[in-house]
């Protein structure tokens, strides 16, 4: 699998494995599915893995760490996130997590982008994974805490980078504008842009991506299927977009893109991955998967050959931005 590098020389495979499903996103992921999924990614050449304390209240970190500890530490890149500490939740063992993960709510998330909170988060994440270091640390969804995150928070991560504790720092968010603002404020390496640079949503194209290219900041694209809308060859009327029912206008646009893909002999999910990798600021596309079959399907989509005429047709129809 091809790799791309950050400005400081950290190599990421063009496809990364997102580990939210390892934390029982929406429903239980069995131990066998975890093992098969990570093994399938490794066998396909994936060497970038992304997790977070948020995913299953630490379950994703524990499971991913257990799988990766079977491989030499210098052969892969792993990222986790800070800003959401896991703290005791008395009585939570009798309830399920209320943020989308099928796990008992024995802990709860506590926002904390302070220097001490970030250092504590990293230490606890390392303990959960059983690893001795992370390669990448992102601030996780700091939208409502942006002032502290973009000053004290990112300064703490840069301090860890300067100490050699981590190789690359940045933030992961579902909006492009604050990511662009973070580039203006701080010396970041990588930003994870979720859902805002896809075949259907070009929010990042006008500001974030040109600025990232100018400042040598790498972009990791997540949510490339827009929470399911672009994950099938033909969009379903009951599909979700940004985890909500898809609006009719967006569904109609997605179907027009699917029409163009079919005319060129490729599928919508194949084009969804290939489109974002065309941009020179993008260093990796992180795709979630549950089990070996889903991982292999994503790899096959990544490997598909895209006809150049598809992009020119989509641009001429005003369906995608020219890159």
From TrEMBL:
<dbReference type="Pfam" id="PF00248">
    <property type="entry name" value="Aldo_ket_red"/>
</dbReference>
<dbReference type="InterPro" id="IPR044477">
    <property type="entry name" value="FDH-like"/>
</dbReference>
<dbReference type="GO" id="GO:0005829">
    <property type="term" value="C:cytosol"/>
</dbReference>
<protein>
    <submittedName>
        <fullName>D-threo-aldose 1-dehydrogenase</fullName>
    </submittedName>
</protein>
<dbReference type="GO" id="GO:0016491">
    <property type="term" value="F:oxidoreductase activity"/>
</dbReference>
<dbReference type="InterPro" id="IPR036812">
    <property type="entry name" value="NAD(P)_OxRdtase_dom_sf"/>
</dbReference>
<dbReference type="InterPro" id="IPR020471">
    <property type="entry name" value="AKR"/>
</dbReference>
<feature type="domain" description="NADP-dependent oxidoreductase">
    <location>
        <begin position="14"/>
        <end position="314"/>
    </location>
</feature>
<dbReference type="InterPro" id="IPR023210">
    <property type="entry name" value="NADP_OxRdtase_dom"/>
</dbReference>
